[in-house]
From TrEMBL:
Protein name: Coproporphyrinogen-III oxidase
Gene3D superfamilies, sorted: 1.10.10.920, tm_1862 like domain
Keyword Transmembrane helix found: no
EC category name: oxidoreductase
EC number: 1.3.98.3
Length: 462
């Protein structure tokens, strides 16, 4: 496929509404407590009976951070006391044992990810213990062929840490940067130098990490086109394989730490849009292609290759190259995808620990997908990953007449066609370069829960 992008500021202003990011469909808003531990176990057993058995993707949530970043909307615990990780890890190890007992031992772990919080908050020995416990209950790959990744705060890692992570089998690394401008960093309480960031990236390359990624955020206080351009140039010079450039959503009524940010210091909507426009232009000049949903990659990166080959996928970790995996998520607040179900662990650490102490999995809510959910998930995933949808393929896989089943959705796409966001004919939907930044709007047309006003509160699409 052609991986091009067209930035049209007037069009973006017109379509800049709020909507889901579609890391799942149905989204987490539809999860209910009617889904229980028993349902989770039933789905796990059922996937063992599939032929061939699906491989596994494991996610571990480490919620601790040393300091708070004011913009952050993640589930985290701020503490300088490293001892707080000890009881959490003890319960996590027990959850690993409970989860591992549900899945056949011959199912390989093709993907593994540590997220947070700050995964490198824990000590090197605790990292080794966590990977050792994982290997005792799941079949980890020992030939470096898996996609084993970790989120890194460069302020919480050095060359020795990177060496330990490589020793443990990690081969992909994602670094949080957000912005290098000192004024912006002070306003969001994240003081991080270019030198320490570059040192971690260089250590990762020296240790043989196969992919490096950097996260940036636009829309933070005191940012301007010029200031963010300076950060962007520094990051491009560091030469990561991937870049994620996220839109800051200021929701202080939902996220308490954001109340530390002075709304008057935030860039105007016009300046914010100009920052995005320059970022897209500059990354294109530097040779990056737009994958979708804030993500850019070099043309030879696995994500870019998978998109061109039609095998890109999207889940709770973002874009992925392993659509066939069942996702087993462990730790407080983490979300699993097993078979045709989603489930989430308890968010509160005390409640999470108490459930495990009682010998139970800490699942507290979820959802089972019906035929309509699976159909719409397939449509949304195809559009958000590949920007085109052939009706015949959906009809073959789901036994429907596409134009009849989705008559109302297709009729509602008239504005998208007139504005040049998509091409729509009797056989397919093709998202055009000027519509790719607005892919969430297009996917929202197929979201039954939004159409029935059963959605929740979401971030702006741009």
């Amino acid at each position: 496929m052609e991986q091009t992008l067209e930035f049209d500021s007037e069009l973006i202003r017109r379509y800049d509404t709020s909507g889901p990011r579609y890391t799942s469909y149905p989204t987490a808003v539809q999860f209910t407590e009617a889904f229980t531990e028993a349902d989770f176990k039933r789905w796990a057993v059922a996937t063992n009976a599939e032929r061939p058995k699906p491989p596994l993707s494991l996610y571990f949530h480490i919620p601790f951070c040393d300091t708070v970043c004011f913009y952050c909307a993640c589930n985290k615990i701020i503490t300088k006391n490293r001892k707080h990780a000890v009881p959490y890890l003890e319960h996590l190890f027990r959850e690993i044992a409970l989860q591992g007992a549900l899945f056949d031992a011959d199912r390989p772990v093709q993907q593994l990810h540590w997220g947070g919080g700050t995964p490198t908050f824990i000590s090197h020995e605790q990292m080794r213990d966590l990977m050792r416990a994982t290997g005792e209950h799941f079949r980890l790959l020992d030939d470096d062929s898996g996609e084993y990744s970790i989120e890194i705060d460069p302020r919480e890692a050095d060359a020795e840490t990177i060496g330990v992570l490589r020793e443990l089998g990690f081969n992909r690394i994602s670094l949080g940067v957000q912005d290098f401008d000192p004024t912006v960093q002070k306003a969001v309480n994240r003081i991080q130098s270019e030198a320490e960031t570059r040192a971690v990236l260089e250590a990762a390359r020296a240790e043989g990490f196969r992919s490096t990624s950097v996260d940036l955020i636009y829309g933070l206080p005191h940012q301007s086109v010029a200031s963010f351009a300076a950060t962007l140039d520094k990051v491009i010079d560091m030469d990561p394989a991937r870049l994620s450039v996220f839109n800051y959503a200021h929701l202080p009524e939902m996220f308490k730490t954001q109340r530390q940010i002075n709304a008057g210091d935030l860039p105007s909507s016009e300046e914010k849009l100009a920052i995005l426009g320059h970022t897209i232009e500059r990354l294109g000049q530097a040779g990056y292609v737009f994958i979708g949903m804030d993500h850019f990659a070099k043309p030879d990166d696995e994500l870019a290759v998978a998109q061109r080959n039609g095998t890109l996928y999207r889940n709770f970790q973002g874009y992925s190259t392993h659509a066939e995996c069942d996702l087993v998520a462990m730790g407080a607040t983490s979300i699993s995808m097993i078979g045709d179900s989603y489930s989430q662990n308890l968010k509160d650490l005390e409640a999470y620990a108490a459930r495990i102490d009682a010998g139970h999995l800490p699942v507290f809510r979820g959802v089972e997908l019906d035929a309509d959910d699976k159909l719409r998930r397939a449509v949304i995933t195809q559009l958000i990953c590949h920007f085109e949808l052939e009706f015949a393929a959906v009809e073959r896989d789901h036994g429907i007449d596409f134009r009849d089943y989705f008559a109302a959705e297709l009729e509602g796409m008239g504005d998208f066609v007139r504005d040049g966001l998509i091409e729509l004919d009797a056989a397919a939907i093709r998202v055009l370069p000027r519509g790719r930044l607005l892919i969430r709007n297009i996917c929202m047309q197929f979201d039954r829960y939004l159409r029935e006003s059963r959605g929740g509160r979401y971030s702006k699409v741009i």
